[in-house]
Amino acid sequence: MFGFSKELKEYDLSQEELDKLQYAKFTTSKGIIWVKLAPENTPNTVANFAHLANDGFYDGLNFHRVIAGFMAQGGCPQKTGTGGPDWAIECETQSEGQVHKKGSLSMAHAGPNTGGSQFFICFVPCPHLDRGHTVFGGIEANDTESFEVLDSITQGDDIEKIEIFETKE
Questions:
Q1: Is 69 contained in some domain?
Q2: What is the pTM assigned to this prediction?
Q3: Which residues of 68-86 are buried (b: 16+ CB within 10 A; e: fewer)?
Q4: Do the bridges between strand 87-88 and strand 7-8 make them parallel or antiparallel, or are there none, so unpaired?
Q5: pLDDT in tens, 143-166
Q6: Is residue 11 part of a domain?
């Protein structure tokens, strides 16, 4: 994931295609977390995440790095924090919605434009990360069940699968 000579991948999805990328359903060993994606603000990051999810890339991975009072990180195929796809994507940190609050889904990276598959979900507000990491979704404020599952995540918990949906129903 953190190789700096990787090709930057760009997705060219139509508005109609982006409109179908609205929710990510994280099925974990602790339960379900629903995340509202933000393709209107971060189209390339959402398209990349959806592409990987739809290809089953995340199925069977884990939360390899969990820091209580901070965040849960996943998306490494080696389950160590050192892996990712054969490409990187550009950061979209100047777009709207770049505020890390409890439940924010953000792209992990080792520097600008080095993200690929690893992501993290914040346990608390993390303003020091604002505009440094691309926030491309978040748990909706009224979704107490997803927040309860998020709060229960510990290091090594399984990500059974991540699915992308147009609606939550």
A1: yes
A2: 0.96
A3: eeebbbbbbbebebebbbe
A4: parallel
A5: 999 999 999 999 999 999 999 999
A6: no
